[in-house]
Design goal:
The protein has 107 residues and is mainly alpha-helical. The chain has three helices and four strands, in the order H-E-E-H-E-E-H. The chain folds into two domains: 33 residues, no CATH class; 55 residues, no CATH class. It has a two-stranded antiparallel ribbon with strand order 1-2. The protein has a two-stranded antiparallel sheet with strand order 3-4. The protein is globular. The termini are far apart.
């Protein structure tokens, strides 16, 4: 019997981050309450038919493609410092390389 779609997505995400899907994640988890067992990251996976942030990303990605750029969404909330960064997993390596370049240039 094939995996349920959400279990497959949890395995895919775990593989991406070199972790392992947590069996019985959430309140029943024996190792962690996260969906992925990882030494440094607490990873929660949500599979939905639609996420509003992804719709925003789709619109932004079209604009970024026209300019030959990598789409990045910065989600900010009033009265909360900092921001959340949304980037597609395929583009995460590009973002990391850009960050490393910035560090190198500042040395």
């Amino acid at each position: 019997m094939p995996d349920k779609a959400w279990k497959k997505r949890e395995r895919d995400v775990a593989h991406y981050f070199n972790g392992k899907r947590t069996p019985l994640s959430g309140g029943n988890g024996k190792v962690t309450r996260a969906d992925v067992i990882h030494d440094d990251l607490f990873i929660e996976c949500k599979l939905r038919a639609k996420h509003t942030a992804v719709s925003l990303w789709d619109d932004t990605a079209k604009l970024a493609k026209d300019e030959g750029k990598t789409p990045v969404i910065a989600l900010c909330e009033k009265n909360r410092p900092g921001f959340w960064i949304m980037v597609h997993s395929d583009d995460l390596k590009k973002i990391k390389e850009e960050d490393l370049k910035k560090i190198k240039d500042s040395e």
